[in-house]
User: What shape does this take?
Amino acid sequence: MRYFLDAEFNGFGGELLSIALVPQDDALPAFYEAVICEHPTAWVREHVEPVLDKHPLSREQVSNRFFE
Assistant: This one.
C-alpha cells in the first residue's frame, strides 16, 4: 500500500503546521490535521493559515487522531 505525505511548516525548518497522508487506494480514508502554531511567520499567517481548512489542534491531539 502506497501513501502520499504532505506537510506544511512555519517557515524553512520551522515547526509543523499541518500533515496529510493520502492512500493510493481511494477506498481508504485520508488523514489531514492542522497543528497549533504559537508564533507563525508573517508569510505563513498571510498565505498558509487561511487555507488550512482545519481548526488547529495540539500536537498531542493530532498524534492521538493519527493513532485512532
Notes: The two ends are 19 Å apart (CA to CA). The helical segments are 42-48, 59-67. Strands lie at 3-9, 16-23, 31-34. The chain has one domain: 3-67.
